[in-house]
Amino acid sequence: MSDPEIRDNRAVGRLEAVVDGEVVGRIEYFVLDSPERALVPVHTIVEPAHEGKGIAGSLARELYAIAGREDSAVASLCPYVTKWAERHPEEAPPAGQDLVTASKEWLAAHPGRF
Questions:
Q1: What is the three-class DSSP state of 77?
Q2: Residues near 96 by Cβ (< 8 Å), separated by ≥ 6?
Q3: Which residues pair with 5 in a beta bridge?
Q4: Which residues are within 8 A (CB) of 92 and not within 5 positions of it... i.e. 6 or more apart?
Q5: What phi and psi values does residue 88 have, to the nearest 5 degrees?
Q6: pLDDT, tens only, 59-95
Q7: What's the pTM value of the predicted model, to 2 decimals?
Q8: What percent of the residues of the chain are helix, what percent strand, and what percent coil, each to the nearest 5?
Q9: Distance of alpha carbon 98 from its chain centroid, rounded?
Q10: Is residue 44 a contact partner of residue 59, using CB atoms and an 8 Å limit?
Q11: Distances, alpha carbon 28 to alpha carbons 8, 18, 65, 67, 90, in Å
Q12: Are 96 and 103 contacting, i.e. CB atoms less than 8 angstroms apart?
């Protein structure tokens, strides 16, 4: 298997891992604008045939890299991304509690989004 291409499909709120033209994993997220700008991952999904190959970690790493390039925080509501960030604090600065609270409020106000 070749390394996945990671692409930001912002229009649909997905960071996608693509191998041989097929989306094999994704992080579903939304962008929060207030109280400050943040990328908010909600779910990480890897197709069963591609589990255990580092795809989820590659997606999480790239999500934080995108946030860094955009001068945004990452306020994770995704259990996988949260655990990944705890294991990689040098790459994943924590978000403030106000951002996490605002992210949870946004998600509650948009129940059909995810």
A1: coil
A2: 73
A3: 18
A4: 60, 64, 74, 84, 85, 86
A5: -130, 60
A6: 999 999 999 999 999 999 999 999 999 999 999 999 9
A7: 0.94
A8: 40, 30, 35
A9: 18
A10: yes
A11: 10, 15, 16, 14, 23
A12: no
